[in-house]
């Protein structure tokens, strides 16, 4: 069975500092994708970054980067130079080859609060 | 420009009164999804369409049904809403493949009176 674990229910970070949001996963699929989404209080889910299981390099997308450690089954999101607008829920998710085509497994999320 | 559009943004219905939520997309993605998200929880997949093929999650209540009349539109029908169905309903689309991200609409927040 596939599983995503986010152990930090809430995090605080000072504006302009970097922050790491943790995500570990479990899967038996040899090929899978890992995703991070941001959900502001208004409710929409915003896709941030993707990491494929066979990708050799860590994904980066602007201020977002993914610290992918395959042997440890972790895919932590790093946000550099935090901004007040980064305050939101962040969900780590995984999608594998096996099972349902639509099966994007979400973690429980981490609520990030950026302090001025 | 919004690419996955959900209407309405807020919906209020009475206990037991059928309600339909709508979703449209301009991305021409072949897969469309409906999620239910309750307060402080992760989204929960209800069902998805791969083209016209309907896939129901095992624990989706019979009260929930869906229609996809064409590539662009998908509807969520709740036949007899109960108080426990009050939630945010998120529509998403993607291309086929495990490396394809799902693109979400802004959601419809459903309240039950």
Characteristic terms for this protein:
heterodimer; A: 116 residues; mainly beta; 4-stranded antiparallel beta sheet; 0% helix; globular; B: 113 residues; 7-stranded mixed beta sheet
Shape of chain B: globular
**Helix and strand run of chain A:** EEEEEEEEEEEE
The assigned structural class of chain B equals mainly beta
Number of helical segments of chain A?
0
Shape of chain A: globular
Instruction: Kindly report how far apart the N and C termini of chain B lie.
Output: 33 Å
Report on the biggest sheet of chain A: 6 strands, mixed
Average pLDDT value of chain B?
93
How much of the sequence of chain A is in beta strands? over 45%
Fold and architecture overview:
The complex is a heterodimer of chains A (116) and B (113). Chain A has strands at 3-5, 10-14, 19-21, 24-26, 32-39, 46-52, 60-61, 64-69, 74-79, 88-96, 104-106, 110-115. Chain A is mostly beta strands and 116 residues long. In chain A, strands 2, 5, 6, 10, 11 and 12 form a six-stranded mixed sheet that branches. In chain A, a hairpin with a 7-residue loop joins strand 10 (88-96) and strand 11 (104-106). The N and C termini of chain B lie far apart (33 Å). Chain B contains no helices and eleven strands. In chain B, a hairpin with a 5-residue loop joins strand 7 (64-67) and strand 8 (73-78). Chain B is globular. Chain B is mostly beta strands and 113 residues long. Chain B has strands at residues 4-7, 10-13, 19-25, 31-37, 44-50, 53-56, 64-67, 73-78, 87-94, 103-104, 108-112. The A-B interface holds A 29, 31-33, 35, 37, 42-47, 50, 52, 91, 95-97, 100-104, 106-109 and B 31, 33, 41-43, 45, 47-48, 50, 55, 57, 88, 90, 92, 96, 98-107, 109.
Describe the protein's topology:
The complex is a heterodimer of chains A (116) and B (113).
Chain A: E1 3-5, E2 10-14, E3 19-21, E4 24-26, E5 32-39, E6 46-52, E7 60-61, E8 64-69, E9 74-79, E10 88-96, E11 104-106, E12 110-115
Parallel strand pairs in A: 2-12
Antiparallel strand pairs in A: 1-4, 3-9, 5-6, 5-10, 7-8, 8-9, 10-11, 10-12
Chain B: E1 4-7, E2 10-13, E3 19-25, E4 31-37, E5 44-50, E6 53-56, E7 64-67, E8 73-78, E9 87-94, E10 103-104, E11 108-112
């Amino acid at each position: 069975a596939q599983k995503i674990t986010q152990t930090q229910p809430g995090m605080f970070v000072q504006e302009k500092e970097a922050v790491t949001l943790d995500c570990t996963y479990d899967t038996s699929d040899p090929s899978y994708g890992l995703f991070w989404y941001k959900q502001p209080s208004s409710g929409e889910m915003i896709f941030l970054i993707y990491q494929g299981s066979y990708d050799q390099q860590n994904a980066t997308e602007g201020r977002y980067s993914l610290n992918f450690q395959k042997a440890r089954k972790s895919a932590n999101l790093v946000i550099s130079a935090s901004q007040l607008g980064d305050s939101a829920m962040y969900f780590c998710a995984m999608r594998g080859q096996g099972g349902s085509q639509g099966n994007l497994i979400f973690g429980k999320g981490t609520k990030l609060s950026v302090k001025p | 420009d919004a690419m996955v559009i959900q209407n309405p943004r807020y919906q209020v219905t009475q206990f037991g009164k059928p309600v339909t939520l709508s979703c449209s997309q301009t991305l021409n993605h072949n897969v469309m999804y409906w999620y239910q998200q309750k307060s402080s929880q992760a989204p929960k997949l209800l069902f998805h369409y791969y083209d016209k093929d309907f896939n129901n999650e095992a624990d989706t209540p019979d009260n929930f049904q869906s229609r996809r009349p064409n590539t662009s539109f998908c509807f969520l029908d709740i036949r007899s809403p109960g108080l426990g169905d009050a939630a945010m309903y998120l529509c998403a689309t993607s291309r086929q493949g495990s490396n394809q991200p799902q693109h979400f609409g802004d959601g419809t927040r459903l309240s039950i009176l």
